Write the C-alpha cells for this entry.
Amino acid sequence: QVHLVESGGGLVQAGGSLRLSCAASGRTGTMGWFRQAPGKEREFVAAIRLRDGTTNYTDSAKGRFRISRDNAKKALYLQMNTLKPEDSAVYYCAASVSQLLSGATSMYDYWGQGTQVTVSS
C-alpha cells in the first residue's frame, strides 16, 4: 500500500513560483503530478521514474516546471515557475507500481488528496 500526502499549494500572482511536495510511503516505480481545474478532466503535468530519474512533462509544463524526487526522504516535488492563471487547479500526486512514464491517469494506482494552486492575474 502507498500513502501520498501533498502540500505546498496556495495563492500566488502570475509570474510567481510555488513548490509542491508529496510525502510518499511504500514502494513505487513511477510518480507523477496531475491537475484538475473546475469543470475539466484531470490532466497530466509531469512524471519521474524512480529507478533512473527519467522525467516526462506535458508541453505546457516544459521549461517552467521541474519534477524531482528525494529517495532518502521519500518525497516528490514539483517546482513551478512563471505561473499563469491557467495553471490554477487542484494538483494531485500519484504513484504507479509500473516503470512506465505514463501520462494516463489509468496507469497510476495511488493518489493523494490534492492541493489547491490559485494563480491570480
